[in-house]
Design goal:
Blueprint lengths: L1 E4 L26 E2 L24 E9 L9 E6 L4 E6 L5 E7 L2 E8 L5 E9 L4 E3 L2 E3 L7 E5 L12 E5 L1 H6 L17 E4 L8 E5 L2 E2 L2 E5 L2 E2 L18 E9 L11 E7 L7 E9 L21 E13 L3 E13 L8 H7 L12 E14 L4 E18 L11 E17 L4 E18 L8 E4 L3 E3 L8 E5 L2 E10 L2 E17 L2 E7 L2 H9 L8 E6 L6 E17 L2 E13 L22 E12 L2 E11 L5 H8 L6 E4 L25 E4 L7 E12 L4 E20 L7 E2 L5 E2 L17 E24 L2 E14 L24 E2 L6 E3 L1
Parallel strand pairs: 3-9, 3-10, 8-11, 16-19, 27-32, 39-44
Antiparallel strand pairs: 1-45, 2-35, 3-6, 4-5, 4-7, 7-8, 12-18, 13-14, 14-15, 16-17, 18-19, 20-21, 21-22, 22-23, 23-24, 24-25, 25-26, 26-29, 26-30, 27-28, 29-31, 30-31, 31-34, 32-33, 33-38, 34-35, 35-36, 36-37, 37-40, 40-41, 41-44, 42-43, 44-45, 45-46, 45-47
Length: about 850
Amino acid sequence: MMLSTWPTAIQEDGMKTSKWQREGTLQGTRLLLFGMLLALVSATWCAQAFAQSDAINGTLRGRVSDASDASIEGATVTIHNSANGLSRSMQTGLEGYYVFPNLPLGSYEVVVTKDGFAIVRASKVLLEAGKEAVIDAHMPLASVSTTVEVSGGAPLIEPTRVNVGRTIDTKEIENLPLTSRNPYNFILFQPGVSGHPNPELGIPRTINTNGLLDRINYQMDGMVDSQQDRHGLRLFPISDTYVREVQTVSNSYAPEFGMTSGNIFNVITNSGTNDIHGMFEYIHRWVDASARPILLSPTAPKPELKLNDYSANAGGKLIKDKLFWFGAYEHLERGQPAPVTISAANAAQIGIDPALLATGPGLLHGQFVDTRVDWVINSKHSAFVRYNYFRNSFPFNTNVGGLFALDASSDFKDKAHVIGMQVVSALSANLLNEFRFSWPLRSNSHFPGALTGPGPAVQIQGTANFNGTVMAGDQFTEKIPNLNENLTWIHGKHSYKWGGSWQENVDLQKADSFTQYTFPSIAAYLSAKSGANPRSYSTVMVSNGGTVPSYHSVFFSLYGQDNWQFTPKLTLVYGLRYDKFVPPPADPNAPFIDSRNFNSPGANFAPRVGFAYRLTSKTIVRGSGGIFYESPATNTWFNTLLNNGNLSSVSLGPTSAGAPAYPTILTSVAPTGTPNDVTSVAPNFRNAYTINTSLQLSRELSSNDSITLGYIHTGARNLEFLSNINLINPIATLPDGRPVYSKSVSASTRLFPQFNNILLQQSGARSVYDAGVINYSHRLSAGVQVSAAYTWSHTISDAPDVNSFEQNLPIEDPSNRLRDRGNSLVNRPNSLT
């Protein structure tokens, strides 16, 4: 549940199916309909109505009619935004309709004039991100000097929304408590989505999006903000000091949007206006007022749980009605200590310095910068340019606390730069073009800290980890130049929209470098340490980090859709989307044959349809359905390039050929008598997609309260799964029927005896998600706003997730994939936010 309070004086500145469906049934699917509903008129103006529209702008549309509801052709409609001086005018068409697409967010005045009719004026018409304000006007006969004044206002129910989602508005952004300083936690404040908030700057954990794990397309101002290597990661940490609104859609979005089968999470940044506005905020947490960590020894002193955060933003005009500026800065310092639980007795026996048993003094140092310039070039053209910077220095970040002594930890540094821009051009009264471009870059790495041991790293199972780290030497750098081009043509009852997107994923990755000895007991470790038995370890693991040169992949899409004003009560939007995901070049000399080429599926056509219909002035029914392709994680290809059969890491037993004596640190991975493991991708790899359907009923309960009941079904197809394809000829069977395979490698135990394990990334896993949603809203009244959503859901899948942030596991039985069929990792039957 979400409840926000603020003084009333604050201004508004700011398939369903229980069976697996066959793949072939989708190939013949054609254009479907995806919908919106226009409001019925019961007074001079109808209430505003909203629908999913542009990625970062808003749209004003409506119908002008006389007192008998006959259409008025040739009426002049003029809109004006006093915050930035933007004004536009157009005349209604034959059937009285008008549309102003891609408008900057904010409050508008709308004026309609026609000879022989009264002038009608509506003020405070608020446009929010990705929404449409539908303003229908009834013009009474009167002299030209007569003016009818009507105040606008947000409706309780959104008559034209067909998707499942909501917009988190400026009031909520400014007033909801956010102690994590992480706006990505707002993703949980929408119907049909559940998960766990993140107290740090990362993403929320184990998010259920249409029954899938962490499938989210993160965007900022409609531009790329998703890390591409694994599912569910944002590319760029953000600060709520420059967030204006958040557009969230969890199911059934229009063909314009894609690259995911889960959730769209689009952050809209703030901008300057004609008025100077700003904010300063300081947050402090006293250590004495903080609870002790639950794992901390009762005799240990309380660690530094400090928090110091200060932030500020400001915006205004450079030239009135023309040029505007906005800037924001936040500095966050937050202690995140982690108690070490290695027993003092075991540490003394091992010989670990007591100072290395102190609580890990993790301390996050984060800085955020945002600058933005908006330019209203003239009545037909507008643009903005934005730059963002982020930096995070985090000592004692990884392998800290628990059974890790301080000398097993590693530090972390992270930085990112983003430049983005948009140009919107009204080419004519009925033709509008929108162009967006951004270039985000993120780079991070783990490295040895001040107390990290010299190595080799030592693990005594169930007892302690010390003397070095296995989490250092890695590197991740990703830049994603990307662009979006959209063209809108207004023609009678139709609003046609065509466009596409393109992004190049330029990745540079390197794995950790280390030598780690694992011992079964303290006695075995002491035996090796003394030299009595330098090979008393269980295994020694060596990694040289691998050598994968920078690799590039390209994702692009094309779409077309039509917003059809079918009747005054019904609007339909139908469209088709095409996605293409081009992999990087494979290694033609890879030892394993499947790693020498990457398949690039091409038949990724996604038709979509929906409708919304007003049953009464207070009741709306809406439904939608369609196909949604998700982009593959680039780790699908990276893991194949890294683990292609050439040695980059090896695990040796004490009797293996080339096994070193403790404490030898191996600086290279040399061939041994044991064949290497391989990770590859299937030659018939296909892109995952979902078939989404939803049905909703919204009802206005009172002047300030509404409720929505909804049902959602999602069937996922061609999900990625991981299987060891090299195991043959089981030597035994477990009581439940699972086979047991030999650990020895030979032609009788391995399909390809030149390799040990071959983990093949394949497509073909499936999941089914059914959910019922109840959403209650109380709009701002007496300084209180409430939004509460309850979701009942059930998710069944037949394989663990692959290449997501939180899971990358093979199926448990290589001979029978259906053994994994059951409740999904994200199955969360009840959720209330």
